[in-house]
Amino acid sequence: MYRITKQFAFSASHVLGGLSSDHPCSRLHGHNYIVEIELCAASLDSRGFVRDYRELGPLKHLIDDEFDHRHLNDVLGHDHATAENLAKFFYDWARVRWDEVSAVRVSETPKTWAEYRP
User: Is the pTM of this model over 0.85?
Assistant: First the structure.
């Protein structure tokens, strides 16, 4: 199995609902997010690719236009704008466009990742 990944970055704010008032994430705060998309295939295409990285440009445009320097609660329409929900959102969006998508990881900090992999 061949696997490729590509990273994208954006900065955004959010507030997580359902937490106690003394939890720091219940207050408005922000992160510098890293989104990593993974694609896999059993064989390569005629050019020797799982998929040309340039073909992932629409994901970059989505992130730049709809997520970067935005309030994620507004973008997603709910107060559970967690890394886990972002990973699922980006996976679903990308999977409709590219059959080879196998997982999406989202990082809020250099030491934390959430991944959606069906």
Answer: yes
